[in-house]
């Protein structure tokens, strides 16, 4: 299906929405908007396949708003998102589109925010609820969220919800929606599990696919710098200074600690930078994003999860300071720039050992990534001098210099030097901590990566190293928990041999808990991928679960605060199994799971999204 639409007025939207779109600067619909809006306005169920950054929020938000009855202050639309950042972004977009719709109320609900606040807002009434699956489930179980008036259900980034372990929660919610309502599902990819959900819960859906695997990056200049001969921080500051049309940047690193350390170092070098990670409370996170939008900050250093959903028009550059673990993360990262028709720049730092991952990214995006020549000392010096000259020229054109000219003359006379020498001394003073001229030598240029990855002759007869699975881009092909047969369809497997630690939690069969509840809670709250969770044993009043040794403190702390079925799990190391009524050791019920991967891989999570 191909549709060419020149104006939003051709899509059948109301005059009030068209007026709002004109006021906020929307002119021509994107392909996903042009195809989805008419279908959703007709009331049909729909599956939309499109990458992030294609304008899909407006594609479902605008027709959704056309169906809202402002006089009925009850939830008429529910939008599920994988993260609180995306929930906030979607809620803000809806509020913007409702500029000329007085009385409209949208409410984001997500983990990490006080229940008291959400309960008060729910009691006041909201037309649209935007939330993460876990928190929506909580409110439905508490009966503080009523979906009897629901007209529209939207699943945004369904594949991401699957990846994060939310898919069972999503189905639980879908089962509790009214029989008569419209459902729209948006996903960048269509795994079998998502396809199954669509077939089960959508009625004769219209399927719309936007070929945007490369469209998302088409407007983005992609380059890489080979990490060699210079510290990454020094290289980063050189690049930031010399990059043309630099306005604002998001710099991606792998750990929360690195966000803070790099932000401090950049601030010390004169940049307006801040960290964005899961340790910040929601108020602080929102403040950082608002400062980036307003120009109070020019650089945000973020982890993958913390940056999800950020859409700031002035972000001209995305810098992958640490290369991502998989290609999907890379596409999501660079999607923070060059969004919805804007141009952008993506810079990737690549160490020699990461060359194969670079090639995997190129294949996944079907876009070559060109090498970047690191700016020389002369390049940086020239850039700084040019900026200094501009500032001096601005001051020369200002009034009121007579007083300062007199001071220069007095200094020249008293020191018996020329006015030029006085000016040179003042220029040196004006440098402060950022000298105009860089001293030292430029590092020797690194050997560029051959396109066919040829090795030096001395190693020509050796077998190439077998790449790790994440470098081969095969992560999506490895069996995930969601894609494996359910517990009752597969035999229990023996406990894994390796560095695993057994923990006990205070929930069991008597609380109505199943193995999937435990797996989902650990995966979502601690950021431990489900395939890295070992044996799970269910007992009447408690359960045991094996987790990789060396669990990060933030993951452990998050689990200690976690509830399953409303019961605090009280995670602690297990000292032994409970005895049965005959005094012997009691065997757990089924559902044992095997840890079958690299135990050091913990996802960096923004805790509390549930």
TrEMBL record:
| Predominant cellular place of this UniProt entry's protein | cytoplasm
User: Where does this protein reside within or beyond the cell?
Assistant: Cytoplasm
Which residue ranges does the record assign to the Helicase C-terminal domain? 235-380
Instruction: Report the protein name in the record.
Output: ATP-dependent RNA helicase DeaD
Which organism is this entry from? Azonexus hydrophilus
Mind telling me which HAMAP family this protein's record contains? Answer: DEAD_helicase_DeaD
Glycoprotein is among the record's keywords:
no
Highest taxon, organism lineage: Bacteria
Q: Segment Disordered: which positions?
A: 436-502, 566-610
**Some GO term, biological process aspect, for this entry: which one?**
RNA catabolic process
Question: What's this chain's function?
Answer: DEAD-box RNA helicase involved in various cellular processes at low temperature, including ribosome biogenesis, mRNA degradation and translation initiation.
Q: Which GO terms describe its cellular component?
A: cytosol; ribosome
The EC number of this protein is: 3.6.4.13
Ranges annotated as biased composition (Basic and acidic residues): 448-492, 584-610
Molecular function per GO: ATP binding; ATP hydrolysis activity; RNA helicase activity; RNA strand annealing activity
Keywords associated with the record = ATP-binding, Cytoplasm, Helicase, Hydrolase, Nucleotide-binding, RNA-binding, Stress response
């Amino acid at each position: 299906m191909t549709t060419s639409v020149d104006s939003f007025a051709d899509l059948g939207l109301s005059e009030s929405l068209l007026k709002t779109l004109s006021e906020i600067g929307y002119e021509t619909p994107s392909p996903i908007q042009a195809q989805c809006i008419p279908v959703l306005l007709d009331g049909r169920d729909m599956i939309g396949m499109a990458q992030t950054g294609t304008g899909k929020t407006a594609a479902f938000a605008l027709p959704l708003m056309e169906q809202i009855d402002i006089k009925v202050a009850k939830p008429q639309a529910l939008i599920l998102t994988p993260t609180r950042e995306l929930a906030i972004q979607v809620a803000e977009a809806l509020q913007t589109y409702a500029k000329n719709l007085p009385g409209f109320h949208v409410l984001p609900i997500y983990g990490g925010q006080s229940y008291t606040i959400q309960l008060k807002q729910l009691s006041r009434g909201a037309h649209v609820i935007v939330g993460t699956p876990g928190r929506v489930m909580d409110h439905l179980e508490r009966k503080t969220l009523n979906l009897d008036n629901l007209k529209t259900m939207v699943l945004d980034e369904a594949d991401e919800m699957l990846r994060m372990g939310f898919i069972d929660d999503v189905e639980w919610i879908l089962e509790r929606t009214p029989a008569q309502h419209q459902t729209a599902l948006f996903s960048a990819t269509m795994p079998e599990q998502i396809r199954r959900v669509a077939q089960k819960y959508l009625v004769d859906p219209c399927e719309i696919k936007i070929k945007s695997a490369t469209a998302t990056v088409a407007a983005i200049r992609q380059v890489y710098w080979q990490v060699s001969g210079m510290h990454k921080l020094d290289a980063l500051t050189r690049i930031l200074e010399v990059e043309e049309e630099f306005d604002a940047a998001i710099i991606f690193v792998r750990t929360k600690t690195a966000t803070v350390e790099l932000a401090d170092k950049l601030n010390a070098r004169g940049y307006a930078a801040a960290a964005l990670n899961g340790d910040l409370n929601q108020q602080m996170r929102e403040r950082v994003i608002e400062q980036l939008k307003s120009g109070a900050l020019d650089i945000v250093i973020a982890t993958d999860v913390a940056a999800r959903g950020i859409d700031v028009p002035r972000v001209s550059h995305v810098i992958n300071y640490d290369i991502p673990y998989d290609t999907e993360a890379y596409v999501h990262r660079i999607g923070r720039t060059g969004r919805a028709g804007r141009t952008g720049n993506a810079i990737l730092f690549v160490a020699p050992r990461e060359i194969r991952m670079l090639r995997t990214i190129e294949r996944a995006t079907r876009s070559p990534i060109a090498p970047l020549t690191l700016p020389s000392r002369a390049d940086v010096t020239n850039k700084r001098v040019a900026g200094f000259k501009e500032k001096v020229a601005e001051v020369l054109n200002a009034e009121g210099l007579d007083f300062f000219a007199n001071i220069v003359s007095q200094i020249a006379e008293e020191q018996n030097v020329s006015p030029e020498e006085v000016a040179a001394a003042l220029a040196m003073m004006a440098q402060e901590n950022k000298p105009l001229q860089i001293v030292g030598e430029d590092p020797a240029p690194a050997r560029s990566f051959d396109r066919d990855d040829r090795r030096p002759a001395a190693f020509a007869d050796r077998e190439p190293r077998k790449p790790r699975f994440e470098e081969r881009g095969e992560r999506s092909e490895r069996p995930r928990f969601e894609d494996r047969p359910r517990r009752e369809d597969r035999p229990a497997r023996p406990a894994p041999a390796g560095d695993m630690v057994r923990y006990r939690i205070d929930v069991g069969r008597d609380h109505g808990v199943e193995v999937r509840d435990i797996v989902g809670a650990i995966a979502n709250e601690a950021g431990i991928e489900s395939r890295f969770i070992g044996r799970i044993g269910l007992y009447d009043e408690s359960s045991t679960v094996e987790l990789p040794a060396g669990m990060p403190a933030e993951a452990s702390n998050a689990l200690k605060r976690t509830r399953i079925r409303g019961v605090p799990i009280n995670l602690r190391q297990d000292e032994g199994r409970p005895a049965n009524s005959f005094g012997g050791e009691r065997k757990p019920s089924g559902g044992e799971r095997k840890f079958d991967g690299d135990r050091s891989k913990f996802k960096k999570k923004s805790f509390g999204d549930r």
